[in-house]
Structures are given as structure tokens and as C-alpha cells.
Known about the structure:
Elements: H1 5-35, H2 38-67, H3 70-94
Helix pairs in contact: 1-2, 1-3
Amino acid sequence: MALGFIWMLDVVLAGVSALVLMIALAIYVKNWYQTRGRLLGLVIVAVSLFTIANISAVFYYLDLAESYGPPVAIPIMVIQTLYFAGSLLLLAVTSR
């Protein structure tokens, strides 16, 4: 299985986004143990779902890379880049 360069970028962006979301999730869980807020619990659920989506995206991208080329990989990379930027923004706001 040979991944193209753009597909590798898609996989790396999805993996790094998942790591960033896991860091934010750890901060939210720590804060939830201190405050026990209901809203924070819902945020934890939402961030958990986004993390699971990113982890599953890695496997889907690896599967799609075998069948499709750059015409499919480029739009996915644009979407994943925006998602990664949003994850970084969430982490920046969360860590303050």
C-alpha cells in the first residue's frame, strides 16, 4: 500500500487533530472533576465525539487512499486543515 503525499498529509492532519483534541479533553476532564458542571460534561461528550471522528478518519483515509487519487485527497485535505485549525483554536481557548 503506497500512500500518495497528499493522502499522507490527510492522515497526519487527522492524527495530530486527534492528539490536540485529546489534550483539550484531558483539560476539560480535570476541570470537570473540580467543578462538576453540567455544561462542562456536555462539552466533554462533544469533544470525545470529535476525537473519535478524527481517529476513525485516519483509518478511512488509509482505506480511501488505495482507491482514489489526488482529486479526492485535495478537498479532504482542505476540510481536514480547517478542522485542525479549529482544534488548535479550541485548545488555545481551553488552556487559558
